[in-house]
Amino acid sequence: MDWDDSPEQAAFRAEVRAVIEQYLPGRYREGNGPDERAWEFDRKSDDAGARDAAVAWQQALSARGWVAPEWPKEYGGAGLSPNEQFVLNQEFAAAGAPPVGGSGVRLLGPTLIVHGTDEQKAKYLPPILQGEVAWAQGYSEPGSGSDLASLQTAARRDGDEWVVNGQKIWTSGAHTADAIFALVRTDPQAPKHRGISFLLIDNIKTPGLSVRPLIDMGEHHYFNETFFEDVRVPAGNLVGDENRGWYVAMTLLDFERSNIVAAVGARRTINELIEDIGAEGVTATSPVRLAIADRYIETEVMFNFSFRIISMQNRGVIPNYEASTSKLFASELNQRLALTASRAFGLAGTRCDDGSAAGRYTNMYVRMVPATIRGGTSEVQRNVIATRGLGLPRG
Ligand SMILES: Cc1cc2nc3c(=O)[nH]c(=O)nc-3n(C[C@H](O)[C@H](O)[C@H](O)COP(=O)(O)OP(=O)(O)OC[C@H]3O[C@@H](n4cnc5c(N)ncnc54)[C@H](O)[C@@H]3O)c2cc1C
Questions:
Q1: Residue 204 pLDDT > 60
Q2: Active site annotation includes 256
C-alpha cells in the first residue's frame, strides 16, 4: 500500500500548513504537544490574551469549515474525506494546534447527526460550530464507570419536563462548559441497558445543577463532580427514543475511541525526544536506545490502526471493536513513550514540569496516567475486542 500523499492530498497539506503558519496564535506554538482542551479552557480563561487566542483560532478554522472537518457540509462541517481529515489532524498535531469545539464537535455533533431529530440538529449544531456552546459529557457516576449501564441518575417525567436527580463524576471541563449531555435512568424497572435515555441539558446553569472541582494528580482542575437536584429539562430534549439511550450512548463512545491522530502525536514526541537527547548532551545508553527503537516501531504500528479506521470511515462504517483496538494501543503507547522519555534523562527524570526537557517528559508521564482509564479502561477495551471482535463468550 502506498501511503505517500496523492497530489490532491499534498496540495491540501500545503493549504493547512499555510493556515497554521498565518493564523495559529503564538501561545499554542510552544512544544509539549497540543492540549486537547486548551481551546475550551482558554475561551473561559481570566487571561484576556488566552481568550483572544481561542477566539482568533476558532474564527480562522470556522472561515474554512475546519471546526468540524468530519461533519457533512449540510450541517456546517467541511465534509472532508477521512484521508483529508487525517492530513488536517496530522498537521494540527505536529504544530501543537488545539482542536476547537471540544466534545460538542468530536462526540455530541456526530451522534446528533446519526440519532437527533431535524429540530435538534438545527438547534444544537450551529452554536457548537460557532464556538458559542461547549458541551460536557455526563456518563460516569461514583458507582458506575466500566459498568456504565448500572447508572442511577434518574429522570422522572413531570408534564412536559424531565426532573433529574443524581450525581455524575469525572465530568471533564464541566466548569467551563455551557451545557451537558447526560445518560439518565428513565425506567427503573427495566433491565439495566433498557431503562436508560440520553438527555440534553442545554444550560449548565439550570437551577439545581451544580459543578464542583476535582483536582487531579498533576494539580490541574480538569474534571468535576456534577450534581443534579430536581433539575428540570424540556421533554423534547431526549436524543433517540425514551429508554433506548444506551444505543445513542454507544454510538458516541465509538466516536470517542476512534482516535486517528495518536500516532502523529507519538511520532512528534519521539522526534522531540531525539532532539532533546542531543541538545542536553545525554548519553543514550543501550537500554534507552533499545526502548526508543521499540517506541518507534509501536508508533508505526499505531499508524496502521489509524489507517484501518480511516478506510472504514471511507466506506461509511462506524468503527466499533476497531476503535477499541486503536484507543487501547494508543493510550498504552503514550504511557510507555512518556516513561521511556522520562527515563532517558536518568535522575533528572525525577523532576517534573520545572522547565527542563526531563521535567517536561515526566510531566507528560503524569498527564498520561488517565489515558488508559478515560473513554473506557484498557480492560474494558480488551473485553470489547474479545467479545465483539473475536466472538468470544462473555464471562
Ligand atoms: C481523564 C479522564 C477524563 C474523563 N472524562 C469523563 C467525562 O468527561 N465524562 C464522564 O462521564 N466520564 C469521564 N471519565 C470517567 C471514565 O469514563 C471512567 O473513569 C472509566 O469509565 C472507568 O470507570 P471507573 O473510574 O468508575 O473505574 P471502575 O469501573 O471502578 O474500574 C476500576 C478497575 O476495575 C477494572 N474493571 C472494571 N470492570 C472490569 C471488567 N469487567 N473486566 C476487567 N476489569 C474491569 C477497570 O479496568 C479498572 O482498572 C474520565 C476519566 C478520565 C481518567
A1: yes
A2: yes
